[in-house]
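Practice problem: predict the structure.
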Amino acid sequence: MISDKSGQYLLELAKEAIAFYLETGKKIGVPSEHPLELDEKLGVFVTINKKNRLRGCIGYAEPIMSAIEATIDVAIAAAFNDPRFNAIEPEEYEKLDFEVTVLTEPELIEIAHPDQYLEEIEIGRDGLIIQKGYSRGLLLPQVAVENAFDVETFLDHTCMKAGISADSWMDESCDVYKFQGQIFK
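Answer:
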């Protein structure tokens, strides 16, 4: 994964990208001076909370661009394009808490029987992606901890996030992936 220093850099960059967009309506450019390890392609999510309640969360689960570019993109998307919330207003900015989660590449969990998921997934370490057909849901590792989920409840909620029935993870046509995340607040 990345160093704590680089993670804090991404956190500050996410805040700066949102502030710049609030002020100008434009996307900030990639700073010429930045930790070189952030040029690596990594999955990144930006989460915005207000008074300990979700205010926006968007990210790339797959490593499709450099961590630094992904952070700028998803910070702006979390603040202004999360379909669950209205866009962030300038007067809100100072009341917001920001979090950047850098992800490992998702790994398909290979099992012979769905009961084995309960042994393969560790709460507090793993995030989940569940895919069935065109439906796909993702929950970050911290979601299970923050909501005191056990593994089965975590699987159920990830299915619901995908818009499929909670017990779909028991269906052989459903793929379950796990990943880990480094969280920077």
